[in-house]
Amino acid sequence: MPVAFTRFRACGLAALLLSACTDQESPQPAPAVNEHLVLGNPSGATTDAAKPTNYLLEKPQYALSYHRDRGLPNWVAWHLSPDWLGNAARQDDFRPDAALPAGWYQVQASSYVGSGFDRGHHCPSADRTRSAADNSATFLMTNMGPQAPNHNQRTWARLEDYCRSLVEDGQELYIVCGSYGRGGTGSNGYALTLDRGRVTVPAHYWKVIVALPVGEQDAQRVGREARIIAVDVPNDNDVSSNWASYRTSVDAIEQATGYDLLSAVPQATQATVEARVDNGPTQ
Per the structure, how many domains does the chain have? Predict the structure, then answer.
């Protein structure tokens, strides 16, 4: 065999071995974390349609866990920063969400009509004004829950306004909002379900807001002094318009829901901040 060929074969074998070793030793890039789930996926929701009570839907504008049998989200999470705010008009195009798995009932824009409950946004319309498309995404019915009108239009609206004021002051927020329980009181009285039983009326709505100065590596920047606002409000038309009177701890909401709300935050930090009830300013 010619010497030149022998050397070529040896070199080629060495290159293959080096390539194999390099492939084995090179770390694989970590999957990208959804912008809205930087602080964690509260219920471990997945895109497995065989788990219809905790089904993950990831939109560009927010992420959510959907409960097919309740006809509403378990929770919705979104990042709120100056980048998401602009001048887009409110679209008001309530509609069913075609992204749900085939065969699942799609709650309709008309499903709450005459019920005495609002189609209450989880991720608010006014938090997504960068473009008409972003705003329109908040009107999917998978982002809605039956909410007592005064709860929605006064208590919740004032809390949402306050959140946007924090962003205007140079903060970025990670917000997760959801509900639990069954049975609420709207403008027509008490109800357990709507839409012939296909939509559950929650007993409580809750929200957790993590406020940080604008920056990077957000989960790691949640320190023990971070401001975290947790609110739990009965779904009742007689609730106070003062959202601050319903402040509670993250621990209390986790106990009520069974979720792990800040799972991506270092454990030592979680133990401190989740036990605390916010007493900061409210306007």
Answer: 1
State whether residue 229 is helix, strand or coil: strand
What's the full length of the chain, in residues? 283
The pLDDT of residue 23 is 52
Express each pLDDT in 185-233 by its tens digit: 999 999 999 999 999 999 999 999 999 988 888 888 999 899 999 999 9
Nearest to 276 by CA among 252, 245, 259: 252
How far is 264 from 69, CA to CA, in rounded Å? Answer: 28
Catalytic residue among 121, 122, 151, 204: 121
CATH number, residue 237: 3.40.570.10
Paired tokens of 170: 């140079």
35: its two tokens: 């912008």
What is the helix, strand, coil percentage profile of the chain, to 5?
Answer: 30, 25, 45
pLDDT tens sequence across 137-184: 999 999 999 999 999 999 999 999 999 999 999 999 999 999 999 999
The answer to the question of residue 5 being in a domain is: no
Question: Cβ atoms within 10 A of the Cβ of 253, count?
Answer: 23
- Rounded CA gap, 212 and 274, in Å? 16
Helix (H) or strand (E) run with residue 160 in it: helix 157-168
* Cα 31 to Cα 69: distance, rounded to the nearest angstrom: 31
Q: Is 79 a catalytic residue?
A: no
Confidence (pTM) = 0.89
The whole domain housing 157 covers: 37-273
